[in-house]
Specification:
Blueprint lengths: L3 E2 L4 E6 L9 E7 L5 E2 L6 E6 L1 H8 L5 E3 L4 E6 L2 H14 L4 H20 L13 H13 L6 H7 L4 H12 L3 H17 L6 H8 L4 H12 L3 H7 L5 E3 L1
Antiparallel strand pairs: 1-4, 2-3, 2-5, 3-7, 6-8
Helix pairs in contact: 2-3, 5-6, 7-8, 8-9
Length: 241
């Protein structure tokens, strides 16, 4: 078996062995068509092949040019696994009019793959149906760079601090402050791809009080330092679309 290979289409590998500690996203890699690369040895993974024209037409909806990917690493939102599992189930069952539903799933999978490449890894399970909790979530998403207290969030949700903290954790599985930190970390990941920003600037824009606090939180929650993350996720060169 050859140690190197290539496909005439885009290859996306989602490796479940490299899943992150928070379980909201998985390590994924993408390689462009006809780019020769080593064969990855993964026993627990999805290998998704997306046609070149199909993928590139949709990618150009998001960006003016298309990078050449060679095992480019990115975080893949765990929610998209639902679409992948549905796709596999539909194929195996040979259900009536499956061509229609498979086409719909292919659109969802491709668009969210592109969004994940661009740093958008929204976990749809985290969107609460509780009005008070959802209001607090929206507030965090809009004001994450500011000083936010539990009291402020409880007031936004029109609840006491005790009730808000208890209901928030019951709904989402994490505390409001942990949710805030996750939003800040997600923002920092996007900013780290902008190489002109220093680590301190990324920390401040993300809502962390200092570079040291930012680095400590990032290492704890992502498993790598901001500097290492920036190096690993450097954007590849692009070619005209």
């Amino acid at each position: 078996m050859s140690k190197e290979y290539s496909y005439p289409c885009y290859e996306v590998i989602i490796d479940f062995n490299d899943s992150q500690a928070n379980a909201h996203s998985y390590q994924a890699h993408i390689t462009s068509p006809n780019v020769v690369h080593p064969r990855r040895g993964c026993q627990h993974c999805y290998i998704v092949l997306i046609g070149r024209e199909f993928f590139e037409k949709r990618y150009l909806m998001y960006a003016p040019s298309i990078p050449v990917f060679k095992e480019q690493a990115f975080d893949f939102c765990s929610d998209i696994l639902k679409a992948l599992n549905t796709f596999v189930f539909e194929v195996s069952k040979h259900m009536m009019n499956s061509d229609i539903t498979l086409a719909a799933q292919a659109e969802i999978i491709t668009h969210w793959t592109i969004r994940s490449l661009m740093g958008e890894t929204l976990d749809m399970r985290a969107v609460s149906s509780n009005y008070s909790i959802a209001r607090a979530q929206h507030y965090i998403e809009q004001h994450y760079a500011e000083h936010i207290t539990l009291t402020t969030l409880a007031e936004v949700g029109h609840m006491s601090v005790t009730s808000f903290n208890r209901n928030f954790k019951k709904e989402l599985g994490i505390t409001p402050i942990d949710y805030l930190i996750e939003v800040r970390i997600k923002t920092a990941k996007l900013l780290l791809k902008r190489k002109e920003l220093s680590i301190t600037e990324v920390a401040m824009r993300s809502g962390f009080g200092s570079a040291s606090h930012f680095s400590s939180c990032f290492l704890t929650r992502v498993g790598t330092t901001p500097q290492e993350y920036r190096k690993r996720y450097t954007e590849p060169e692009a070619f005209p679309g």
